[in-house]
Amino acid sequence: MVQETLKNEAARNHTFLADMYADAYFPDQVVDHGKAILVRLCHRIEEQHPADLDALYSLTHSATNEFNDLQAEFEANDSELETGARESIGMDFAFIAEAYGYKADVEELIATREW
Q1: How far is CA 21 from CA 24, 31, 74, in A?
Q2: What is the rounded distance in angstroms from the CA atom of residue 53 to the CA atom of residue 78?
Q3: H or E element: which one contains 26?
Q4: Angle between helices 53-76 and 83-99 (to 10 degrees)
Q5: pLDDT by residue (tens digit) across 5-61?
Q6: Confidence at residue 25, expressed as pLDDT on a 0 to 100 scale
Q7: How far is CA 20 from CA 47, 48, 70, 86, 104, in A?
Q8: In angstroms, rounded to a whole number, what is the distance separating the alpha carbons of residues 84 and 49?
Q9: Is the pTM of this model over 0.85?
Q10: Which of 45, 71, 79, 84 is the most buried (most CB within 10 A)?
């Protein structure tokens, strides 16, 4: 799914994981996979229109689990989802929730994280 096809203008124009792209410690090709997770999350929100926070959290937990699975790819490229990555990813989850009109708890958005 392509970011340019998002209906939400803020999400469509947002630079996801900008801090990770700016840091050579994180390989761009792996960060691209993380960006794709976030864009898919936006598409799911636009398709499903979660009625409440519980429904939103279900979607964000699924996306968080995809980041959990991505850890091995970072490690295979001599990187990891460490503090800087956690902050960048968490900020983008919070951005997405806000862009779609939800007042969500950031920690709950990524509650299933293993990083």
Answers
A1: 7, 7, 13
A2: 36
A3: none
A4: 150
A5: 999 999 999 999 999 999 999 999 999 999 999 999 999 999 999 999 999 999 999
A6: 97
A7: 28, 29, 14, 10, 23
A8: 30
A9: yes
A10: 45
Q: Where are the beta strands (DSSP E) in the chain?
A: none
For residues 66 and 69, give the distance between their C-alpha atoms in angstroms, rounded to a whole number. 5
Structure tokens belonging to residue 33: 């996979």
Q: Residue 99 in 3-state DSSP?
A: helix
Say if residue 106's pLDDT is above 90.
yes
Q: How far apart, in whole angstroms, are the C-alpha atoms of residue 89 and residue 49?
A: 22
Query: Which pLDDT does position 29 carry in this prediction?
Result: 97
**What sign does the dihedral 62-68-69-74 (CA atoms) show?**
positive
10 Å CB burial of residue 17 (0-12, 13-18, 19+) is buried
